[in-house]
Amino acid sequence: MGKRESTPMAHFVRLDSEGTRPLASVAVRAPVEASLESSVELNRFLAGIERRAFRVAQMALRDREDALDVVQVAMLRLAEHYARRPSEEWKPLFFRILYNAIHDSQRRRNVRSKLFGGWPGRRADDDSESEDDDPLARFAGPGPDPAGRVMAGEAMARLEVALAALPTRQQEAFVLRCLEGMDVAETAAVMRCTEGSVKTHYFRALKTLRERLGEVW
Amino acid sequence: MNEELDRLEDTARRAREVFDASVDALDEETRARLARARFAAVAATERHARPAPWLRWVPAVAVASTAVVAVLLWRAPDPSTATMTTTSATVEVDASLEAVEVLAAGEDLDLVENDLEFYAWLDATHFSDTGTTG
């Protein structure tokens, strides 16, 4: 009898309801597949970025449901088309897809607005923000330090208003460079422009935000 | 100048703090929906990594198709025989068509039925068609 080959072990990790914290690890005798490892890594990457991506989308679209939709679209597209790419490329790819989805959503909204904008009976939140999109409302609720959260909510509301008044490219450069901490090259890849343009957009955005927020921050 | 740059840096730092706080303050329902979207995306990756079920049958279908073609080629009749057979069949079809044409033209059926000479001529015409005149 030949020596029986040992089958590599695969560890399946049970995650909590949010899928971020492991509850238990189960070792199963099965072939370890690269795709499984890739899935676990992708899950970890998306778990780390999804909430920030949602807030970025919400700031751009000023609508919670639309923001959830575009984040979902971005996740799916990244998973379907780029999951096999090196994980270091995922963040710029994800944000590029996210901004494409945001632009698509804005275009659809503009078309809807032109087609149905003057009709009676249109949605009340077409032009005005719903309660979900009120930054202050988002910070309200039970929990420790309600005063601190209200102040943070007010600061965020001011930032959103000031950011929304910037040209789109400046908004994107500011979000990617400042809030997401991407370097100039990554930001240029996401925005599909030169690094010099990124620097220009970012500087102008920062200067304008300083002028508008400097007094109150 | 340095003071101005410091102010800009302060603005960037403050914006990061405020943004991070807003991310941490996301409500449970939004977090749960984002997690569900993520599970769906990861599941899509696994679906893409697996080959489609119908692809498993491709080798078997290829082997079967090759076998069928091989058998057909092996069993195919000799080309010369095939030509002769085709010629006979063509003659039969032509004869039938001519008879139909004659009948359809309203010719004198009695003449057609009784005149053996006519049939003989008809036969002669058919077989001489391949060579001289009709």
Structural write-up:
The complex is a heterodimer of chains A (217) and B (134). With 217 residues, chain A is mainly α. Chain A contains eight helices and two strands. Chain A has a two-stranded antiparallel sheet with strand order 1-2. The longest helix of chain A is centred in the first third of the chain and has 28 residues, at 34-61. Chain B is built from six helices and no strands. Chain B folds into two domains: 2-65; 85-125. Chain B is rod-shaped and about 125 Å long. Chain B has helices at 2-24, 28-49, 58-75, 79-104, 109-114, 116-128. Chains A and B meet through helix 1, helix 2, helix 4, helix 5 and helix 6 of A and helix 1 and helix 2 of B.
- How many domains of chain B, as an integer? 2
Element order, helices and strands of chain A?
EEHHHHHHHH
Q: What is the total tally of β strands of chain A?
A: 2
Low-confidence stretches of chain B: 129-134
User: Which blocks of ≥5 consecutive residues of chain A have pLDDT under 50?
Assistant: 1-13, 25-32, 121-129
Query: Can you count the beta strands of chain B?
Result: 0
Overall structural class of chain B, as computed from helix and strand content, comes to: mainly alpha
The side-by-side strand order for the widest beta sheet of chain A comes to 1-2
Q: Give the overall form of chain A.
A: globular
In whole angstroms, the N-to-C terminal distance of chain A is 78 Å
| Cα radius of gyration of chain B in angstroms | 44 Å
Number of helices of chain A: 8
Class per helix and strand makeup of chain A: mainly alpha
Strand residue percentage of chain B: under 5%
Helical segment count of chain B: 6
Binned strand content of chain A: 5-15%
Mean pLDDT of chain B, as a whole number?
Answer: 73
Rounded radius of gyration of chain A (Å): 22 Å
Overall average residue pLDDT of chain A: 81
Note the quaternary state here: heterodimer
Helix content of chain A: 55-70%
